[in-house]
């Protein structure tokens, strides 16, 4: 799962990314940096400060919603005015948390937004014989636990959350490594994670839903 933390306070941004280690986190400290990131990439959840050098965070929210993006959006702001809350939530934000906040609460809200948008608010995701407990981060096939690495679990959730859609190798690389994907010479690490994921699921007896779409990418087909 991939997050974008749009926050100009460097210490707070570092605290957030240091705490949310279950996610691939990218950061943007200014309006311009945030706009560049949003133009280039998609995210499972965006943490959006409203007061940014170079522009208002609400403008970014408007842009995201005009483009009909599906990124989850949580506003994190010291601007705790009721008007800002109403404007943000009315214009498409999924949640609003005022500074200062506790990091465990922020983590719970991020989890809740992603779960709601991608998995219909379920804590357990089931795909025929495959079951994923989102809280414990455990995967079962035919009732037997399948030990997956963090990256393999991330891939599995990404595929199931986008079932029956072809996902390009570039999109998978971006999802796994964020903006570092642009610096890589090949997608060998993507192939390695997918190979290991398929092997573990196949050995456990799953229904071979993960398909290689020749020359394009992969698809979880059900």
UniProtKB/TrEMBL annotation:
Domain OmpR/PhoB-type: from-to ranges: 122-222
DNA-binding feature ranges: 122-222
Pfam families from the UniProt entry: Response_reg, Trans_reg_C
Name this protein carries in UniProt: Response regulator transcription factor
Keywords: DNA-binding, Phosphoprotein, Transcription, Transcription regulation, Two-component regulatory system
Listed CDD domains: trans_reg_C
Response regulatory domain segment(s): 2-114
Residues bearing the modification 4-aspartylphosphate: 49
SMART domains assigned: REC, Trans_reg_C
Domain of life assignment: Bacteria
